[in-house]
Amino acid sequence: MRRRPFTVLALLVLAALFLFPFLWLVSASLKPRERVFDNSLWPDPFTPANFSEVWQAVPLPLWLLNSLLVGLAAALAVTLSSALVAFGFAYFRFRSRNLLFGLVLGTMMLPAAVTMVPVYLEWDWLGLGNTQVPLWAQNLFGSAFFVFLLRQFFLSQSREVFEAARVDGASFPRLFTSIALPLVRPGLIVVFVFELKNSWTELMKPLIYLRDPDLFTVPRGLKAVLDRFGQGGEAQWELVLAASTIATVPMIVVFLLAQRYFLSGLTTQRR
Amino acid sequence: MSVVRRESRWAWFFLAPWLIGLALFTIGPTIAGLVLSFTDYDLVNPPRAVGVANYADLLADPKVGTALWNTAVFTVLHVPLQIVLALAIAVLLHRMAVARGFFRTVLYLPVMTPPVAMAAMFLLLLNGQTGAINELLSWFGVDGPQWTTDPGWIKPGLVLMSLWTVGSTVVIYLAALSGVAPELYEAARLDGAGRWGQFWHVTLPQISPTVYFTVLVNTIASLQTFTEAYSMFFGAGAQSGTDGDAALFYVIYLFQQAFGALRMGYASALAWLLFLIILVVTAFQVRASRRLVHYEGSPR
Known about the structure:
The complex is a heterodimer of chains A (271) and B (300).
Chain A: H1 4-28, H2 49-57, H3 60-91, H4 97-109, H5 112-125, H6 144-155, H7 159-167, H8 172-183, H9 185-201, H10 204-209, H11 218-229, H12 237-267
Helix pairs in contact in A: 2-12, 3-6, 3-9, 4-6, 7-8, 9-12, 11-12
Chain B: H1 3-36, E1 39-40, E2 48-49, H2 53-60, H3 62-95, H4 100-108, H5 115-125, H6 132-139, H7 151-162, H8 167-178, H9 182-190, H10 195-222, H11 227-233, H12 250-260, H13 264-292
Antiparallel strand pairs in B: 1-2
């Protein structure tokens, strides 16, 4: 590897560029108001009071709790339902299987904006307009991308294991819960973390469905903070950045803990 | 009853959630949206049939033209830059034997950041007077533009910001690169290919199906850009001065018409136009791929 010094240098520069916004965010969130706009990475004077101030100005703990509950419901629902459907596609041989699986792939291409209005009207009609239910309940019906991903995981297991369990008299539901699911645990973790991240970062659905600030998730609350204290508001950017730090850090921690599964799960799907 | 018949009954049990969801949240709403697009509906009064009036309005609405233009400009800048940068980083990273995990993690971290937090950060980082990005440019003697207020620079600013999340594509390319057989590189070296030749004649053809997939997915996502631009330039605290038109992307306008102006019928017509545009763009890319994408075992 003759050119390695260049590779290392290029990657270090890139890493610095990618890390800089995080370091800047955390540092700026600890600066007093008049110093937020200087770009030094050392907060001087060190002002942790920004955090308690924004914590008192808006119900951040409540929003964090909402995000956590919505995220867990969304991730749990989509993991179980997608696994069920993926196993259906991976294990059983039936007529129209290829046609239906083609339909799964086809729905991945359907832009979400097309169904945005009618799906809102559905939830509104069910009386669930200003609630958190529409933020996760759709996940009970699986998601095309995760069905596709988990099907790959099921297909990569040897079929004999399943057949052997059948011969031993296991029913299909039992085969699914006690044999199939444990075998694809890494895949389930990937889906769970991925959906947790999707839910934790989602803004459009909360904008559409949630009107009551007590129901807000973190991104929706953060948008309210940005509107009030940032852009065109009271110009208290140190509070916006403190809230942004609080919104960002939990997901980064989850990612660092789960990344072994997460990145490897995404990088080992071969054809 | 035969074993196969009994099995296929169970198959329907496993597929049931998806089939129900398909009817309730995909096929049903898609058709309902088409029907709604021929009505006026404000949530309060019952829908009123108006024929093709919404589509006629849409063609005459200057904001639709602005939104389409903005979306097209963003997509044309964002997708190729994202793909080329991701490919370059992935190739560099693939060459690294040590600390690959560290770099991969660092590059992926931005993907885990809530877009609203990212929007708040970049409003300040891109700020024309005090932002770190212009400070960095000034080290090289470049006088940076007003990324967040100059209508001509808002879209390039958003594109620049979008590159921060290139990690999601990098990770996909890394997987593809590790699937290329080493023998192919050896053969190319024996034929006298240098690094660039190897990349051009081995790497690129081998991973072209993956590149094609990411172009397709990135384009569809890019045509639906919403969250970052909406967080930065719209909503209760919308910045005055630019009146937001330079960042008015198609889905933002759709969202405003549906949930701001409560024009559900008009918004549905807008959604169907987007659907058609995405279908045409995708069909075009599928056609182009027949010539450009190399599949294992098929003649080129």
